Write the structure tokens for this entry.
Amino acid sequence: MRVVVSEFMSLDGVVQAPGGPEEDTDGGFAHGGWSHPYFDPEVVGGAFAAGLQHASALLYGRRTYLTMAAAWPERAGDPFADLLNGLPKYVVTDTLGDAELTWQNTTRIAGGEALARIRELRAAEGGDLAMMGSPTLVRALLAAGLVDELQLIVMPVLLGGGKSIFPADGTKRPFDLVSTTTGKTGVQVCVYRPAAD
């Protein structure tokens, strides 16, 4: 499986709390929901829907999993929701117990085993292992060279600080731009893959 990461991102690389004010206030982040004015249903919604058509499973960190698990099961009957709800899901967590994994088809991966287990999943046959949000986990996967594709949904706004997916370890990691699509709101969907050595 390919590990494919999709992220809403500001021009200054912030991915924190794009969906709402209470989504993630760590560090005093006060701009929750910042992506809404720039969401282009045709371009952004189409990119997510197209990406999920290739997904064999979903991968989340704890916070993103809890947000998604609280939102999507109740939307059954919507094609996008039905796709999300039906796919196998993996959540990397050391704090959630099995009783808290209420979203159907969810498997817990312990944090200390995450990289090894994701390497195993990545080596398996199948479609994409799709990720959304989960900046801490994405940063670890990028640092370990385990991301096969980045789909960055870049919104034309500066947020001045917040969580990023990018490792800050001084390592150069070249990527190739595969495609870019611009929406009516100024949003750009940019797809990158690691550059060949």
